[in-house]
Predict the 3D structure of the following.
Amino acid sequence: MSLYDVDMERVRRRNPWRWFLLHPRADYVWAVLAVWVWLGLSALLRQPLMLEGVGEAARSTLFQTLAGLSGATAGLTLTSVSMLINVLGKKAPPGQRALPLERLTPDHRKQIGDVFLAAIPGLGLLVVATLSTIVLEGDGDTGLWIPEAVVFVLTFASVQALLRVAWALRRLMAIATAG
C-alpha cells in the first residue's frame, strides 16, 4: 500500500525523500546553504562572487530568462491549482463505485494542495527579484553580488518546489489511473 491507500507496483520508502516532500519551507534553508557554499568557494578561490565578473549582456539575458520562466511557471502552477480543486472535488454519481481520487483523506488532499501552493510565492518572488536585479545592475560592467545571491536563493528554492509539484502530479496520475 502506498501513502494514499492505492496499490503501487514499486513502493519503496525513502525517509529523506519523504521528509523533503513534507517540508516545503526547508527549500529556502537548502537554497541559502547552496549559495553560501558558492560564495565561500568563490572567496576561497579569490574569484568574483556570484556573477560579478560576467559581462553585462550575459547577466541581463540570464536574469530576463529567469524572470520569464518563473513567471510562466507560476502561472501554470496557479492554473494547476484551480484544475486540482476541480479534480479532487469530483464525486462519482450515486450508485456507481467511488472514483480513485475520492479515497484520499482530507489530510492527503490538503498535503497535495499545499505542495502546489507552496511553489507559487517563491516563483513570484523570483520574478520580482530578477527584474529588480536587472534594474539595479543597469549597464554596469560588474554585477552586484547581493541581489544576485537573492536571485539564486529563490531559484534554487523554486526548483525544489517544482520537483515537489512534479512528484504530486505523478502521485495524482497514479491514483487516478488505479483500478
Summary: The radius of gyration is 20 Å. The CA atoms of residues 60 and 134 lie 6 Å apart. The chain has five helices and no strands. Helices lie at 15-22, 26-44, 56-88, 106-137, 145-176.
